[in-house]
Design goal:
- By secondary structure, this protein is an all-alpha fold.
- It contains 12 helices and no strands.
- The two termini are 44 Å apart.
C-alpha cells in the first residue's frame, strides 16, 4: 500500500525523509538533537533512518519523526525555518478539531461512497469522476477499468480497516445524551465522573459553546 500512496501523501513522506536525512547526515545536528531531546525529557533522542530496500521502515521513520516533531522544530528553527514552519503547522498532520471519532465518521462515509460509486459505475454513470466523464461520458471505454479500481480500493480499505465501530464512545460525542449501552464498558470511577459532568450546569453550557475537544479539555481542568 505504501508503494501506491497518492501523490499528495508521497510528497509528505518525501519531505519527512529529507528532514531525517539532513539530520542523520550531519554529526553536529545529530548531537544537537540529542541535547534538545535530553533537555525536554523526550523518550527518544535519535531519528530512524529510512531504508529504501525495506518499505516497512517508512512506518517507523514516520512514527519516530512524529514523536520528535517538537524537538525537530527547535532544531530547524534558525537554519531551516521552512521546515520548522511545516512542523508547527498542526493542520498538516490533522484537520482542525479532528479526532478519532470524526476521522472514523469520515472513513465510514468514504466506504459508503465507494459502494455508491460502484453502483453508478455498474450502470455506466461516471459523473462522480468529471475528468473521465468528459472524455468517456457513456463509459464505453473506461467503465470496467474504473470499476476494477474501485473494487481494488474497497478490498484494500477492508483489509486495513476491517472493523470500524466507535458506537461505544457516543458518550464522548455527547455526554448529555447517553444510554446504558454506550456506557456499559466504563469503569465505576469513570461512570461516576460522567454523572458529575452531566449534572454540572456550567459544563453543560460550555458543551454548547465549545468544540468537542476543547470541551473535554475544559472538563478535565474543572
Amino acid at each position: 500500500m505504501v508503494k501506491t500512496i497518492p501523490t499528495e501523501l508521497k510528497s509528505v513522506l518525501n519531505l519527512v525523509v529529507n528532514m531525517v536525512n539532513l539530520v542523520k547526515s550531519r554529526a553536529l545536528k545529530t548531537r544537537l538533537l540529542k541535547e534538545i531531546c535530553h533537555e525536554a525529557g523526550s523518550k527518544h533522542d535519535t531519528l530512524v533512518l529510512h531504508t529504501e530496500i525495506r518499505w516497512l521502515s517508512k512506518g517507523k521513520v514516520l512514527q519516530r519523526f512524529y514523536e520528535l516533531k517538537n524537538e525537530l522544530s527547535k532544531l530547524f528553527g534558525t537554519e531551516k525555518p521552512d521546515f520548522a514552519a511545516y512542523l508547527n503547522d498542526t493542520e498538516c498532520v490533522q484537520g482542525k478539531e479532528e479526532n478519532v471519532l470524526t476521522s472514523s465518521d469520515k472513513l465510514k462515509g468514504f466506504l459508503k461512497k465507494l459502494k455508491v460509486w460502484k453502483r453508478h459505475v455498474e450502470n455506466k454513470s461516471l459523473k462522480m469522476f468529471p475528468l473521465i466523464f468528459d472524455i468517456d461520458p457513456q463509459g464505453d471505454i473506461t467503465n470496467q477499468l474504473v470499476l476494477n479500481h474501485l473494487t481494488a480500493l474497497e478490498d484494500s480499505m477492508a483489509q486495513y480497516f476491517p472493523h470500524i465501530s466507535v458506537d461505544k464512545y457516543d458518550w464522548v460525542r455527547n455526554p448529555y445524551a447517553t444510554s446504558s449501552e454506550s456506557t456499559a464498558d466504563l469503569s465505576l470511577e469513570k461512570e461516576e465522573q460522567l454523572v458529575e459532568i452531566q449534572e454540572d450546569k456550567t459544563l453543560r453550557l460550555k458543551y454548547n459553546e465549545l468544540p468537542l475537544i476543547r470541551f473535554w479539555m475544559y472538563a478535565k481542568i474543572e
